[in-house]
Amino acid sequence: MLRITNSFSGKEATRYYGAALGQTDYYAREPGIWGGIGARHLGLSGTVSKEDFAALAQNRNPRNGARLTVRTKDDRRAGYDFTFSVPKSVSLHLALGGDAEVERMIMESFQETMALIESTMETRVRAKGRDEDRRTGNMVYASFIHRVTRPVDGIPDPHFHIHAFVFNATFDAEENRWKAGQFGGVKTVAPYYEAVFHSLLAAKLIENGYPIRRTDRDFELL
């Protein structure tokens, strides 16, 4: 499943990092990882720090503290949470015995899907009377792995999923500046990207000898 959560304000995004994203598995076991061409453009790679995450959420360049995009409104959208979930049987398989190979295939499928989404990233063009969108092909996101749901009465449920918090910033090479992203198209075709993610994962599992059965929605491990 791919769920795209509605936009967060800067303060909401920072709180969200501490409450959900910064503590993977809700027990702070693994750090988040930077992703996207835009992240590399900003010199961000490897482990996500709370300070860098908060800077971007407040529309600041993490490297020098300068304002990133031209406009910083009180109600500015800081970003969107893209949540990729694997089929239940895959979560159970990982919970029962762990399987580094399956986790690797999940991450590869996630990264390939995000690269496809990133290639379609756009920004608005409104200068000089123009009213159109321009493809930029880059984004900045922080990904976090969770293996369980939030505990209910102290008991978590196996649920392997990946949060990709995509910041509302993309570099427009034609104007040589950072601008807000145009996410409407991505959200509209989210079911397509969900299908891509599951198709990639299913193909990798089959190729590596894991039997699956197709379902109406996606697939399950046998």
What do these coordinates show?
By secondary structure, the chain is an alpha+beta fold. The chain has one domain: BirA Bifunctional Protein, domain 2, CATH 3.30.930.30. 35% of the residues lie in helices and 26% in strands. The chain is built from seven helices and twelve strands. It has helices spanning 10-21, 37-41, 50-57, 88-97, 100-119, 184-188, 190-207; strands at 2-8, 33-35, 79-85, 122-125, 132-135, 141-148, 158-167, 170-172, 177-179, 181-182, 212-214, 219-221. The strands form four sheets. Strands 1-3-7-6-2 form a five-stranded antiparallel beta sheet. Strands 5-4-10 form a three-stranded antiparallel beta sheet. A two-stranded antiparallel sheet has the order 8-9. Helix 1 (10-21) runs antiparallel to helix 3 and helix 5 (100-119) packs antiparallel against helix 7 (190-207). The radius of gyration is 18 Å and the shape is globular. The model has no long low-confidence stretch (mean pLDDT 88).
